[in-house]
Design a protein that fits this description.
The protein is of the alpha+beta class. The protein has 2 domains: about 5-35 and about 145-315, ATP-grasp fold, B domain (D-amino Acid Aminotransferase, Chain A, domain 1, 2-Layer Sandwich); about 55-140, Dna Ligase, domain 1, CATH 3.30.1490. The protein has 12 helices and 14 strands. The strands form 3 sheets. It has a 7-stranded antiparallel beta sheet with strand order 12-11-10-9-8-13-14. Helix 9 (about 230-245) packs across helix 12 (about 300-310). The radius of gyration is 19 Å and the shape is globular.
Length: about 325
């Protein structure tokens, strides 16, 4: 269970200090951070660049608007509430359906209007925002996953995190919700991280709580059999987020809706390092390979082709 710094370096593991200084500080202009730190700004930029995102139904900016919330969402059977400046999945509330006066979460737990209003009030107060600053609550359409993803996850919508460096995808993982994660695709809360081969979208490794697993603990789905459909389209959508933000190092979170197809869920200027654990591999050699390039293709499709050629892995199902 224990290792040494030397062993981690040999495996090419990117540490937090090097990530912060060598990549985030070096390649991300701080004046661009609001484009990804504020989900409302991200949505506006995505609309400008014609990058598809979940439909925004309502913004709640004041306590007075909370009183109007029930009337505003009366025609929505399900929706997602998010803090505009939240991070790490904090403050996200998923309402799958409604029954009479109750709001029902994917786990089956029920909330009253007072519970939801209190959650909105906490968001406005900055309880879940970066730095604890006053915030805005976003109400979005609920993602309806395609059958492939619906069968994999439990009580929640799976998403795909792709790390983009200088416009080139360098590592990816599928995050699957579990009962332990309360339907959220957050690894720190108990979701499963499935490392993906950039060439094929196949599973190469999978973990929960940092430990390797082969099957979903709730659904018993065989994780080694996972192959993401429309993988090139997903990679291209992620690569296009480089132009959207201008950031050199970022994480793009994607989902697939049964009606609208691949959507950009959100972006992150400081993507976490757990993606390396999910992949059982280090980011550093890939980042260094991209850093060595004198010219980066301007076309996202060409950048994706480079990633698929140079960052391929052996699928988990083929590892003896």
């Amino acid at each position: 269970m224990f290792t040494t710094p030397q062993a981690l370096r040999r495996k090419g593991i990117l540490g937090m200090n090097l990530r912060n200084v060598g990549y985030i500080a070096r390649y991300n202009d701080r004046r661009l951070y609001p484009l990804v730190d504020d989900k409302l700004q991200t949505k506006m930029m995505a609309r400008l660049h014609k990058v598809p995102t979940p439909e925004l139904r309502l913004t709640v900016r004041s306590q007075h608007q909370i009183k109007q919330f029930e009337e505003k969402v009366k025609n929505l059977s399900g929706f997602a509430i998010k803090p505009a400046k939240g991070a790490g999945g904090k403050g996200i509330l998923i309402i799958e359906r409604r029954k009479d006066d109750l709001f029902i979460k994917p786990s089956g737990a029920t909330l009253t209007l007072a519970d939801v209003s209190r959650h909105l009030s906490n968001i406005l107060a900055g309880l879940h925002s970066l730095g604890g600053t006053p915030d805005v609550a976003l109400v979005e359409d609920l993602i309806k996953p395609v059958a492939f993803f619906k069968e994999l996850s439990y009580e929640g919508v799976p998403d795909i995190r792709i790390i983009i460096f200088r416009g080139i995808p360098v590592m990816a993982m599928l995050r699957l919700a579990t009962h332990a994660s309360d339907g959220k695709a957050n690894l720190h809360q108990g979701a499963i991280g499935v490392g993906l081969d950039l060439a094929t979208g196949r599973c190469v490794h999978a973990v929960q709580y940092g430990r390797r697993i082969t099957h979903h603990p709730d659904t018993n789905a065989d994780l080694s059999a996972i192959v993401i459909p429309d993988w090139v389209m997903m990679m291209t959508l992620a690569a296009e987020c480089h132009e959207l933000t201008g950031l050199g190092y970022l994480g793009a979170d994607l989902v697939v809706d049964e009606n609208r197809g691949p959507l950009m869920l959100e972006l992150n200027a400081r993507p976490g390092l757990a993606i390396q654990v999910a992949n059982g591999a280090g980011l550093l050699p890939r980042l260094q390979r991209v850093e060595s390039l004198e010219l980066i293709p301007r076309n996202p499709a060409e950048r994706v082709a480079f990633a698929m050629q140079h960052f391929c892995r052996t699928p988990m199902a083929e590892i003896s």
